[in-house]
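Sanity check. The docking grid for 4'-deoxy-4'-aminopyridoxal-5'-phosphate depends on where the pocket ends up, so I'm generating a full predicted complex first rather than guessing from homology. Inputs follow.
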Amino acid sequence: MMKTEKKMSIYLDNAATTKPCREAVKAVTDCMTENYGNPSSLHTKGLNAQLAVDNVRKIIARAIAADPACIYFTSGATESNNLAVIGAAGAYGKRKPKIVTTTIEHASIKRTMDHLEEMGYEIVRISPDRNGQITHEQIINAVDDTLKAALRPDTILVSVMMVNNETGYILPVRRAFYGIKKMFPQCITHTDAVQGFMKIPFKVSELNADIVSLSGHKIHAGKGVGALYLKKGIRLEQRIFGGSQEKGIRSGTENVPMIAGMGAAVKALCGNINQRYEKVQKLKNMLCQRLSEIEGVYINSGEECSPYIVNISVPGIRSEIMLHYLEERDIYVSSGSACSKGAKSGVLTEFGLNDRLADSALRISLCSENTVQELRILAENIEYAKERLLK
Ligand code: PMP
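Predicted complex below; grid placement will be based on this.
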């Protein structure tokens, strides 16, 4: 009998979500079968569940050089971002002062800021400059200007993402927060570190961040789990009322299995962040080299971007058309960001892309498990697609 060859599925949408790693799946399953107690219960099963949660708190804290007491579990980065921004605004902004952010944030920050604006807060949004960059001076000046304008320390919060989820652009969070804290220590600094966590090593203290948002499913753990680093002494107004879990910062029974999975994923990844970065950088270089040989393909993610995200455009072929063409060949990429379900997010336009480039943008997002062969097949298919679809 002839052996049928298994079709190779090429997953290049890792910024949308990642395949859970073996360690995470095992930790989730073990926890669901053996350690199913409620951490709030007073008996041994409850205690064991609490111990499992606290163990992951330590693992995540170690990965970002933080105190485990500063790690709080949430349902994901959307909740972490909402909690950080609305919580800080509620705790420190009773007089509805200013908040500084950027125009390229994920929807979970962008829409939260819009909501606060409707509530009367003044939101200062920084756009990329003509070179498609947001500099640390721009961020510091935005805080400084708002302070000067108000003649009193009025900017309560600065929220700047670490890595943009559509282009991979790495923002100068470290330098900006350093400058801000030096001049205005009372201003709270928050970063949405979802696309940087476990990819770009960082220590919260060196980052000068008071609050950091993290997500599980972008780092090979399961969906529906995330964390918030909250520096000691920083207050957040409660958003969810209930049983006062997570020291009252986030009520609701902890998602113990998914938390266990997140811990296992962090443990599996944290020892080799730099090696994986280098590997993915080589993959990105190879892919960009190959794509640059195809006429009419534009690479929107420059060298200043994280190697894990490569945004390209093939003008004349709309993103969804190319996405489905590739999907038919078992290659999975994204148009813009998956969270916007293909709707234009406006972020690419903010980076200076014209409509033709923005309408044909594709996000190829890598993980260290991807191979040179997979990227060769992708490039080949993009080339075929261009020949067939542009006719
Ligand atoms: N911030 C960024 C930068 C993201 O890429 C995402 C996920 N697309 C989120 C926040 C939201 O994370 P979650 O899916 O865990 O809610």
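Relevant for the grid: The chain has a mean pLDDT of 93.
Also worth noting: The longest strand covers residues 98-102.
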